[in-house]
Design a protein that fits this description.
- By secondary structure, this protein is an all-alpha fold.
- It folds into 3 domains: 52-132; 145-208, Photosystem II 12 kDa extrinsic protein (DNA polymerase, domain 1, Orthogonal Bundle); 220-279, DNA polymerase, domain 1 (Orthogonal Bundle), CATH 1.10.150.
- It contains 13 helices and 2 strands; from the N terminus they run ααααααααααβαααβ.
- The longest helix has 26 residues, at 12-37.
- It is elongated, with a radius of gyration of 36 Å.
Length: 280
């Protein structure tokens, strides 16, 4: 019986290829073993929401340092922190933004533990900052009689409205603009008509700021008013005003305000609001 020959007997190129392949494989395994013995180092990075925005803030602060007298390091209430003082103290911008958001909701930091929780800074940084902070000894509760005594939904400023949970700078300004367009709230529930204000937050605002004063105003005579006069009411557009006049021309003089429910273009959930501005 004939002895079988090697598959690579007449193929020296194949034998060389296999030899080099084994050498490369051994080298790769050696590199893999060396890398596995080294600890993985990930450079620490500070979260930045917008690099261009952060750079712009830094440029502004540098300009402030060059043109104004430097702020001396002395104890301050964290409520009074701003970009400039935070920069001097070495507080990152994203931490300052968290503190600003807490402040905009009417929050007040009463101790270092509270500051640490809100800022998210490590213990070592909080210990370094501790000598530069002083905290108010006592803050009157938001719902105390002393704080509620002079609160009025028709006179509250945008800043005062921000003590309500859920009302920030945008909503507070929107409430004030809406109130001004109305000429003042006639009933407290009108605040619920502010765009973007949910019913729960509106209820908290009404509770915290009772409607103590109602502005004097002249109601529009429903049976004599023109389309122009009716469309001047914030809750009515020109088409609604035309429909009110058309219905009056059809049935004669309105006998009671409930007849407005028969005007199809009027939203049924706003009839009570519209009636506030009308008389017979």
């Amino acid at each position: 019986m004939r002895r079988p020959e090697s598959h690579f007997h007449n193929h020296p190129g194949v034998r060389s290829g296999i030899f080099y392949f084994l050498i490369i494989l051994c080298l790769l395994q050696g590199v893999k073993w060396v890398l596995s013995r080294r600890p993985l180092e990930i450079p620490a990075t500070e979260p930045v929401t917008s690099i261009p925005a952060a750079k712009a803030r830094l440029d502004t602060l540098r300009a402030t340092l060059a043109t104004q007298n430097p702020w001396t390091l002395r104890p301050l209430d964290p409520y009074d922190l701003d970009d400039y003082k935070g920069y001097i103290l070495g507080i990152p911008f994203h931490v300052l933004d968290s503190l600003y958001a807490f402040k905009s909701k009417g929050g007040r930091i009463t101790g270092m533990e509270m500051f640490k929780k809100i800022s998210g800074l490590p213990d070592s940084t909080c210990q370094r900052l501790s000598p530069f902070f002083r905290f108010p000894k006592h803050i009157a509760p938001k719902d105390s009689p002393k704080n509620r005594k002079m609160r009025d939904l028709n006179t509250a400023t945008a800043e005062e409205l921000q003590v309500i949970r859920g009302i920030g700078p945008v909503l507070s300004k929107r409430i004030v603009r809406f109130r001004k367009a109305l000429g003042g709230f006639r009933i407290a529930s009108q605040i619920k008509d502010v765009y973007g204000l949910d019913p729960e937050t509106a209820g908290r605002a009404i509770k915290a700021f009772p409607l103590r004063t109602v502005p004097s105003f002249e109601k529009v005579d429903l049976n004599r008013a023109s389309v122009e006069e009716l469309s001047g009411i914030l809750y009515l557009n020109r088409q609604m005003a035309r429909d009110i006049v058309a219905y009056r021309n059809q049935i004669g003089a309105y006998e009671h305000l409930d007849q407005l429910n028969s005007v199809e273009s009027l939203p049924s959930d706003k009839i009570d609001r519209i009636a506030l501005y009308l008389k017979l």
